[in-house]
Amino acid sequence: MMASAPHGGPRAPRIDGERLWRRHLELARHGALSAGGVDRPAFSAIDAQARRQLVDWGRAIGLVPSMDAIGNLFLRRTGRRPELPAVATGSHLDTQPTGGKFDGAYGVLAGLEALASLHEAGLQTERDLLLVVWANEEGSHFAPTTMGSAVFSGQLPLAEALAAQAPDGGRLEDALPAFLAAHPEVPRQDTAPPLHAFLEAHIEQGPVLEAAGLPLGIVTGIQGLRWLEVDVRGQEAHAGTTPGSVRRDALRQAVQMARALFAHFDALGDSVRFTLGRWRVEPGSPNTVPGRVRFTIDLRHPREAALADGEEAIRQLCETHAGPCTVAVERLSGSAPIVFPEGIRDLLDQCADLWAFPRMALVSGATHDAKLLHGVTTTGMLFVPCEKGISHNQLENATPEHLAAGTQVLAEALLRLADA
Ligand code: GLV
Ligand code: MN
Ligand code: MN
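A: This is the predicted complex of the input protein with manganese (II) ion.
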């Protein structure tokens, strides 16, 4: 157990839920889309703009910024004993191409609001508090997902991250220098700051809390994830003259693979999550038989053994349906399921109790930076509901009351960890 069990009522000051809500709307202007969502690609000029806004808000309450080599941004609030490992919180500011206002932004703004409430109450903690914006959580342009926290935690070598290539062929090592240079006022910090604990608040991104009518979830763990890419190669040919019997049509075979894969995973039921999210068809011309098709697979399950079986089934089914084409299945990235430590789950639960918020325990279906931090420090997560469970969608929504409830519990838990 990291902090003594809460007793004697709440210690954290009341957070300002109205300011928290307003800041979500202000931040969402950076990359705003017409249907209410946000497109803020990791390492883009828009991503840098959003961070500058955050740095300004942080500076106004005395937070000191720094940034590491992969673009993780740290905003530090100094405690009485800065020589001790800090207590960190945060999430990410990059979004999906058609993302919402809350995925990632909530964890960052909840952390900022928690620190603002301590600042306004004039409360100094023993340990430093660190608000972190992890770089490139979404991984939708430069894979893998949770890139910044993976580099920070030593689970992805920096050189490997820099070699990441976007679907348009652009390399991260070419894009990153301009992004880092867009923050001239933020000093570089190339050694990872030692951490005592990390807490991440996030919208649930699924339907469980809303269906249960609860404002809060204590996350027990995060399911495992595999990203694969299937590469089918055939032969380009004239669409009008080439008879079907002699074609080596990469799309035809890829579609057969997809049908077989959906049938396989559908039969396994709801505990497995299987998605074919990106298709690239070459040459992409209406009157040329496709010579090459690549499609991605996102496979998730709470048990590692089920992921291993799933990956094996994918390889076999793709071979079986390759026909006159060749196929290669490459693993792009993966992470095992994790379970958060009981001590931190208990602390979050007790803090929720102090503020009288009903809650439940639940597993996270989405991946989060907290999964990577779990490898290096005591880590926990809090969820708040989102409307109809919708996320990775411009319509993503949450209520100011639920966002405030999660932030209040976060502030209470951070305070207790930072004084432990
Ligand atoms: C993160 O956005 C994920 O894909 O779970
Ligand atoms: Mn997220
Ligand atoms: Mn996301």
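The chain has a mean pLDDT of 97. Residues 303 and 337 are 6 Å apart (CA to CA).
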